[in-house]
Fold these 2 entries.
Entry 1:
Amino acid sequence: MPPDLWSLYTLMLKSRLLEEAIAKLWYDGLISGEMHLGTGEEAIIAGVVAHLHEGDAMALDHRGSAALLMRGVAPVLILRELLGYPDGLCGGMGGHMHLFSKEYLTASSGIVGAEGPTAAGFALSAQYLRPGSIAVAFFGEGAMNQGMLMESMNLASAWNLPVLFVCKDDGWAITTQSERVTGGDLNERARGLGIPAAKVDGCDVSEVWEASHPAIERARSGQGPTFLHARCVHFEGHFLGFQLIRIVRDPLREMPEIAVRLTHSFLRPGGAALRERLAGLETVLAAVLSTVRDPRQDSANDPVRRARTPLQSNPVRLQELEDQVEKEISNVLASALVEVPS
Amino acid sequence: MRTMYFTQAVDDALAQAMADDPRIILFGEDTPLLRRNLLVRFGPRRVRGTPISESAFLGAGVAAAMAGLRPVVEMYMVDFLGVCMDALLNHAAKIEAFSGGKWTAPIVVRTPCGGGYGDGGQHEQSLWGWLAHIPGLTVLVPSTPADAGGLMLAALQHDGPVIFFEHKLLSETWLELLGSGGRRTVQYDVPAGGTKNVVPQKWEPIPIGKSVLRRAGGDLTIISVGVGVHRALEAAQAFESEGISAGVLDLRTIFPLDKTAVREAVAQTGRLLVVDEDYEGFGLSGELSAVVLEAGISCKYARVCTQTTVPYARHLEDQILPNRQRIYASAKQLMQ
């Protein structure tokens, strides 16, 4: 059975528009602290979540809005949570990094790697209470270096737990390029723990859907966990207002102060020899330059755009669908912004 | 006279120490970019980035300290110590005892803490009481740039594990990174005196375990640390017009606790109000009451602390963190 590209595109577009609305709320100052969007990883989330049924569980990281929305949580509840209202998804207590839905057996965490143990535990309870149900863990490649994730992959393997471990790899662990701090190959790591591993293009929703289908069926039928490694791009970097992206987008505003202090420090007597100082400078420049060369700039890496391409053969239906989704999200935004009567 | 921002002061003191002592190295997640000014002066061998592997790099920091280095290990937020507590609880804190006093781990764990900018309950905790509970750990919570730099220098010279806290509302870089993110549309209740202030020409260590009386007062003693000190000072200022003279004692060090100063101040006023952003139960606020009781000092006592998980919503968060209104109300009650 091939994937239903229309419904996958609908999920992805809804999520993209919702997160663009969230970004606007953040820039307007209606959201106070950090904001990690999942824009760029929609194909991974949609390609996996489309397979989930009642009784399946999800363990999410600090970018959980897309998965919750696609799983069926009303978007207005997510928005009102992010705005801190008492009738938000978690009563205004959680915020975007700590989104919970008991109804959909979904828990989020702002602690990198915590998705591993959580998914293992959800899967363990499924073995006893909901045979045939599974748990999905979504995390970034940075989390792959976190002990608790590796330990839970081993546990899932040893206990044959029905888990799909989904690694959303954008190549960056916050401002650190992951390849600089990661040894070996991630798929080989999973295989070393006895877990089958597959590599997919995380910008291609069909590919994700097709790879996760047998993995999820495998888990449902009691054959244990699978590791799915999907490359993607985060358009906004680690979080909104990400300094490296700000430098690239608006160097005249961002650079002067940084450059003055860097130069001052570079020239200050006492400290390392020139060669070491230059190596330090190179590290800083490399981070900035790799942001400039970033695949974020390339629209071929936009999963929503790519999911749309095959649907353009039916422009009337596509237009109708997009109008409908846009209208839905704009209605959601309008009702989310209604103040709570005091 | 020179002035500095809070984190700038910490980094400046660190730089002074690094120039003098080649054993000092820094590492942590994103440390090369967070400490880029130190990176370009001291090079990538001394300022290193780590994977997101707190158990590994904090544990390694402890052992590296035992084996001759003076590592400063950065924890992105104190909340994340939950991931790697073993390195502190069962290792760093116990080596001196286990070795019969022959071996120590002179590591500095530098970590942002605290709330007031809407990041929710996994990113805005204080937890100094939790750490100070463990024998063997030294716990520092500076409230001004001058103290931050001086205490960092003391931490680097200390012959054992030190946890060095940087409150995010005081830190110009952390608040920018995690809060505003370049926006001008958000505002935070930042205590001005704590964020940018006068610092010494050359850094000298501030003795660990020495509190400082920020304000003298005969009717009431308010004891606090970090941002709480500034909230307490504002409240004390407000009392003046009502004829109430409130003193503010800034502990600066949670462990070892300056018990002498606490007892002296409370014995004089007979009223103790603790303002502590950390959790209320089983922590600093209760400890201070014990210190006073053990000395046989009788006093009226109240505390303004955090009692629950820190809510995400800003208006809820503002209510549960120690704020001026709560301090004011508790102090009024003590004065009755």
Note: The mean pLDDT of chain A is 95.
Entry 2:
Amino acid sequence: MKRKDSLLLAAVVASLAATAACQGPSVPSAGGPPAGAPPAVEPGSDLPGVGSASAPTADGVIARIQNTLVGANPLAGNFSRAVAQVKPNLPQTANPVQATGLDQIPLLVYGACSDVKLSSYGVPTTGTVTANSAALVAAGMTMLDAGLAGLASQGPSSADFQSTLQGLVSTLAADTAATQTMTTSFIAVCMAATTAAVSMAGF
Amino acid sequence: MLIRVRRTHKDAICNGHEHDPSRRAFIRRGMTAGVATLVFSKTMVGNAMAALPSSCPQPVLAKGALAQIFSEGGPTMGARFIGDDQASSMNATMAANYGISGQANLVSIGNLRVDRTSPFGATLLQGPPGYTNAQWQAVLARVSGGGHRGQFNQDDGGGVDTGLLGGASPFKSSQMGKDIRINNKNKLANWASGLPSSLVKGTPTPAALAKVFSLTPAAAGLTNASAMTASADAASALGKILSRVFGLDNRKGGSSVLTATSCGFYGSSALADPSYGLNLFTPANVPDLAGIAGATTSTDAGGNAITNTFSNQELALLAAFYQSAAGVAGGVFIEYFGRDYHGEDPQGVIAPRDIEEARAIVMFLAACDKAQSKGALIYLSNGQAIAAGTQQTTNTIGGNSMTLNSPVADGDAGGSYNAGLILFYDPAGSPPAARFTGRVDTNGNVKIDSKIASSRDAVAGLYLSALQHIGADVGKATAAMQKVAIAASPSDLMLF
């Protein structure tokens, strides 16, 4: 029954995608621009020079997490306790070559994600991961958008972001090593999306 | 006549015979695509997610301890370790300048010498709790040493930020893939900046170390190892998309940021086990250390039982060094502050601090012994205080009260005698025959080897030697150093 649901859902998604692909160049597609249309331009690609990336420093990391997640407060809850534990280990310099402590960011994100209410993102607290797959993916996209100024859902790579989150949710749903609940799955999505938005954009 | 029309896959989708497909055709087309999507995505995503990215150091449980003690300030370095050449040419002036009692009290630890009546020497010779004197002497017999003398010649805070702290991961493979830094405050060597590590501040205790290697809040009901790993996979994949969007591959440091974050994320999945940190850093929970963890005595040279207890700090260091030796962690790097000895009280300040550092070295050697692992410990300061002989003091070493000849630190003398030292331990009893560089005159002052012109070079040489001894990736470390214009000729800097 579960597999039948999955097939049906995939069928609907694929049909919509196929139909959308026929509607002309104004609709971005995962497979690239339609024939004849100018190639999609990534943001910033027209800026002169190459320049350096930056590492987010401790205060920046904390502020970005707060900005990315609804209900995450660095002065309260688990987020504040994680800040107390992890902050000394976070990067102290924006120099991407010299910065240390980037590996601590996911630990801080975990503390913040544990404070976030699933309902803030319209994700049910009960039910199976498979059944709530779309809600989990949507939550991840919302988080990415909050941290990346809407780039996840509006940019030309939108479908890639979406499919990556879908891949994560599918992996969690099929996990045989541990039973993943809606809470563990939501936190996993939250950690992936927030860590990426906070620390993997190069600024 | 057959007319061929060039069509693309889009023509097949959009310009088929049915421009306005029926509901049934729509579903049929979707079912086909849906099955393909599920099959292909599961295969491709599964394969992509199963493997740790090649850009991350692969977790390997490779034995080999690597540690550093950075004694920040300017201690009486001559009252710690000296070399054979210094011992054989020891005279009253040199002994007074070093702050030791004289040649008669010098004893060998491999090719190194310590004053057995000094706080430092007596502590090393007493050994850790749980060892008989004979057992500890056997450990000390497996030690050799060497060093670069003369470069570390600044005091009063000078030189502390010239990159005197190094790093081990990823040159040294480990399960955790990161180093443990204890109170590291000053600037790392350029080549060590950005290496993966976790920092512990304040007095290191088993609980303090465990806390850094645990999740807040505890994982129960919120996450688990497989959810964390799946999340790390997804974050890495999202990072790759962002890398493409923001052109990180072409921006300086872009790939470093991405790699450090994603590799660290993978390493965090082990922390989902709530007892992970405590099991690592509580010696009583480590099978090889459990036998000595609760010990409160050892024996002296006459075979008599003496009081010898672990402090909480010593237990934490013992466990941290052990985890490095066993291959769980990378290196362990400790910075001790307030070692600017000139004018300080020998009884209340100098002796306790020398004892504290010597006890840390004892813990390192005990950890290597218990792990049956090679080890290398780098020991340096940014400066040195010249002494005006010694003063008798009474201090406790592990709770054992002793009368000692403590150095009387006179004034700053960075350029007189100072050294970046290294100890090698080999459980098989064949530590390398390492050299000392720099020439010592009759007053004990040093003239540096011109091939090792600065402390930057000396630190690089010490690290390459350490990595070589424990079988780590010297080539990778050399490449990292050469990237920042150090170690153009590694053999000039290495000690064996």
Note: Residues 7-33 of chain A have pLDDT under 50 and may be disordered.
